[in-house]
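Following the same procedure, sequence and fold were stored together, as reproduced here.

>
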Amino acid sequence: MLSTHSLTMQYPGVKALAGVDFDLKPGEIHALCGENGAGKSTLIKILGGIISHGEYGGRVEFENRECRFHGPADALKSGIRVIHQELALCEDLTVAENVCLGEEPVRFGLLDKRRMESEAVTQLERLGLKLDPRLRAGTLPVGLKQMVEIARALRQRGKVLILDEPTSALSAREAENLEAALRRLRDESYALLYISHRLDEVFRLADRITVLRNGESVGTVAREEFGSSRVVSMMVGRKADDVFPERTKSSRPAECLLSLHNWTLPSPGNVDKNTLENISFDLRAGEILGLVGLMGSGRTELVESLCGLSPARGRGEIQVEGKSYIPKNAGDALLHGLALLCEDRRGHGIMPGKSVRENMTYSALQSYCHTGGLIRNDKEADAVKNQIESLRIKTPSLDFPIDNLSGGNQQKVLIGRWLLTRPKILILDEPTRGIDVGAKSEIYRMIQQLAADGMAIILISSENEEVLRLSHRILVLRNGRVVEERKGGDLELEEAMALAAGAA
């Protein structure tokens, strides 16, 4: 149904694609795997018409006819629907308006809102989701926003559905619902191209896997040939080792950097309900504290409230290095030594249109200025180069637009940004979202090294194994409360999920 032949794409200083051959059949889920910078995002942009015909070399065919897309609208007309990794909702519109966006039903020349809501409910139910279609999209958490975008693609009834990291912001239950929906679509003869760094998902869903490395296709593997070691070796070009490093020892007797006592956060707009209730814990220098919980458990709300990013004002007591601390805003938090890597990279992380250099040094710019306020470009450049090298960020130059980097490399730039501020307490909310399997181990070792150097770290991840394997201490949250506290290594994945879900 869809194929590429000798596809090439050149950016200044880097070859994104180097002769990629690929094909997608009706009634199959074909997974595309590869490290960050392997060429996956560029391939998707070509198939979706974002990179116009003439800007790339080679040929794209859809139903045995050459495609010459000059924009995303041309791809949509042909029946190719792309759900990008970064969210693309109109947050001031309702759920129904977003699901029907671009193809709104009308009645007597006016928008038929009742029909819009009905159709939105139908598509959301296909994903196993019950959601009020009249809710404003901007009020939804990241996971539900992702589901709304997928529902919109399903409503558009394309022949080819391309999903780029569709479960990166979803809970385990939502991911299961999505997988079931994709299998139904495959049975209806949809052609599905699935991009994910989560190999367990890929092995469960895919009929075939194509691996890209350094812009080249290194092979396609059929279901009967699947194997984690083989696919990882194809991706990274070396033998697949254990991704998780050995857990470091906790420096428990060290200085207490952060202390919470009965921290309570009211729900926005509802003073009778609390998002967080009586949260208490201490965090010491050199300690990795993991937060485990399902979506809606309060993990993200907790760390955002610590940095003054919550719309509601919390109650209780917080101390930083033994001194009283009242969260006001992100800048004030930074002055007190707290830095937060947010889960929503696009909405609250990168500055689109700016360079890698500008994005990385934004929060620590004062450190690279003369007394008069002028930036010392040489000092700034040295700092950025060091981070690019240590985090293995794939970019042609310091001044390359961050928009043109892969999602995982954008994430690394943001990690580098907060490391340049030299925080005492680093909060990582989904630090490996969009990070490939070859780079995850490096991120894990970086987290351990930062802790070994005396930094206190709070770690949140939807991939709970990361939290359980890296943390010195683990808090399990459910409905805004801490329901369990364990030492690292004392909690298995199945038990953690049972505690988070309230199961016996």
